[in-house]
Write a structure and sequence with these properties.
Elements lengths: L2 H27 L5 H24 L3 H20 L2
């Protein structure tokens, strides 16, 4: 496996983890939310992150992979600084 794939996958996983945690917090903050909704948000988010990470690691060309990483980084910055 090429080095750029390892770096891109690791960067995406870090950003994806932050996005999953944000999704869990948003699910928790909904009025009338129960614990199962938070865990459902975590499961769906983790599954999506895992699928995209595998695609970055093995399938996607470099331009698309780095585009996904950049979009994730922009999403993390936007969501964490939004207040």
């Amino acid at each position: 496996m090429e080095t750029w794939r390892i770096v891109a996958t690791s960067s995406f996983l870090l950003g994806g983890l932050v996005m999953v945690l944000v999704a869990m917090a948003l699910a928790r903050d909904r009025k009338g939310a129960v614990r199962s909704q938070v865990w459902r948000a975590a499961g769906i988010g983790a599954l999506a992150v895992a699928v995209v990470a595998v695609l970055i690691a093995y399938v996607l060309p470099s331009v698309v992979a780095w585009g996904v990483v950049a979009a994730t980084a922009l999403g993390v910055v936007f969501v964490t600084m939004w207040d």
